[in-house]
User: What shape does this take?
Amino acid sequence: MTIRTIIGGIAFSIFSVGSSHAQKLNLSVTLPSDTLKATSLSLSNELRNTDIRIPRAGNSVYKSAVIIPDKGFYQLENVGKVYLVPKNNLQVTSADMQTYSFKGKQAQENELLIKLALLRKQLLPENTTLPGIPTFTLLKQSVQEFLVTVATYKNAVAELVAPCSNLHFTELAIGDADSYSRVMLLGFGQTHELDSALYQQSKKFLEDTESKKDPNFYLKSLRARVLPLYDGLLNEEDTEIIRKAYTDGFDLNNKTLLLNSPWYGRVLSAISFTDIPTDERTLHQSYAKKFEAIPTKFKDEQFAEEMRAQQGLDYLKFVKTIGGNLDEAYQKIKTFSLADSTKQRIEKAYLELKKPTQL
Assistant: This one.
């Protein structure tokens, strides 16, 4: 018997007997059989270190009695974000992989999640070329225009979920939208008026292995990174306005959002390490200082481990942005003390960043 098997059995016993939250629910997913041949679907929440396989039970049906650690948001493969509550069963059906219907006590909440996703795409869409920042169109807005765009989106979210009587769900939905908005504000401040054509040219230069052989690559890479942003760099006053917009009123200790919103941890990480600047010339040392500071800044281990994940992911993205050596950065990150689940998240990001960019 392996250690993993023993630990898994202990965890199952704890979930089954000792926890007032983690309990079974029956989850059923019916999808068009002619478009999906997978033997199972994934139900996951990487913030909770949860990844459950839902086996195929028929020609077009996937179902299982699953144990989840608590109520909240999970990602259901081929469906998207779902809201689940222990002991409350849920049925998901789609005839075209475009629209979904729900049956169960949480049907209303899950129907709202579909509408919330559409609302985000309509009012505050994320950049598909550069995830984590607004679209190139939104980046052309003035600071005041973008603040109005963000406020309009957040107000629309609050209005949409207001009729729902499930306070836990509405707080999660509004909190997730707030965290997402703050990430978009942060990205707006860093990439205002980013020129998409110049960005593509610069990216091609930075990722070209021949370019990196140039003895003047470092100086040329600086120019390549600044040029697409040069015309839209915010002045000091506007920079401060954006900074206040994404920092003011942010709850630094919201564990519910930490475990349910992938955007919350990104904001928390961005705010919490401003006192430790990133020096490109000594990049590993900069991130080593941030990792060393985590236990002091975060006494709660769940917060601390999420910050290790965020800093590791930031390290990789930074290296990718400057055209650095991803393999070397990944190996250095592995020298830090990380939980297995964090190592898996960082490895997944590393493999994704290694893929050739489609220009």
Summary: The longest helix spans residues 167-191.
